[in-house]
Design a protein that fits this description.
mainly alpha, 5 helices, elongated, two-stranded antiparallel ribbon, two-stranded antiparallel sheet
């Protein structure tokens, strides 16, 4: 049991299919693992949806997850945690659509026990933002450095000030586009959270309405029971009175018979 809870160096593998086609990924998986169960997939259904994730962004995310925790433990940050965290960051940050597979109910399950995998998505997402911002800044510096190198080696006749300006503008535009995309994603996440809060409030109101209705039903049922008990008591009282009257009548008739026949008590 001691080795079960020991930590080991994380060594995950991510397979990128040829041409990015899922069909090629399916062929690879069948050749590597034969039969398998699919947990879930992520996709972008429309071309005009928010920008899809690039290979550079995926590499940055995988690096960020590994940097966040490069040790595995069977009862903690395991391959289940790694896969879940990567998928959730892609789903939330890049607004991907998740489709549940045949084994989705068993997601993050090991030996019929749910593994703790859900606590680090936000932290890893923030770490990714930091790392991607560094990559964008480095890319911008490389563009400017390349332009300056050409200018220094080939002179102004080969590299005009206009081309330098265009490259700098392109680099700045790339950085601005990234910031704009992140702002849109954050706004979308805010909208989703607000929508989730609204739905939760509606559900609370529905539950409260159901609870009040149940209480009202119980109150009415109690009133019905009290009314039924009251009528039963009244019937019992009437029956007792009738029995008493009958007994008194019989006693009077018996007394009259005795008197008519000269019988004394």
């Amino acid at each position: 049991m001691g080795s079960l809870f020991a930590t080991v160096d994380a060594d995950d593998r991510v397979q990128v299919p040829q041409n990015g086609l899922k069909a090629n990924l399916d062929v690879f998986v069948l050749g590597e693992f034969d039969r398998h169960n699919e947990v879930c997939t992520l996709h972008w259904p429309h071309e005009n949806s928010p920008p899809r994730m690039s290979a550079a962004q995926l590499a940055t995310l995988l690096s960020a997850v590994h940097a966040y925790n490069d040790q595995y433990a069977a009862n903690g940050n395991s391959c289940y945690w790694y896969t879940y965290t990567v998928m959730e960051v892609i789903r939330t940050k890049f607004v991907a659509v998740q489709t549940e597979g045949s084994a989705f109910a068993e997601r993050s399950m090991f030996a019929r026990k749910k593994m703790g995998v859900e606590g680090d998505v936000e932290a890893v997402s923030k770490l990714y933002d930091t790392e991607w911002a560094k990559c964008a800044e480095q890319a911008q510096k490389r563009v400017v450095s390349t332009v300056n190198w050409y200018f220094a080696n080939f002179g102004e006749s080969d590299v005009s000030q206009d081309s330098i300006r265009v490259n700098e503008e392109n680099a700045n535009a790339a950085g601005a586009a990234h910031k704009d995309r992140m702002a849109k994603i954050e706004a979308e996440e805010g909208r989703k959270q607000a929508e989730a809060g609204r739905k939760q409030a509606e559900q609370e109101l529905e539950r409260e309405a159901i609870r009040r209705k149940q209480e009202e039903d119980r109150r009415k049922q109690a009133e019905v029971e009290r009314e039924r008990e009251k009528r039963r008591a009244e019937r019992e009282k009437e029956r007792a009175e009738r029995e008493k009257e009958r007994a008194e009548r019989l006693e009077a008739e018996l007394r009259a018979l005795r008197e008519n026949h000269g019988v004394r008590n």
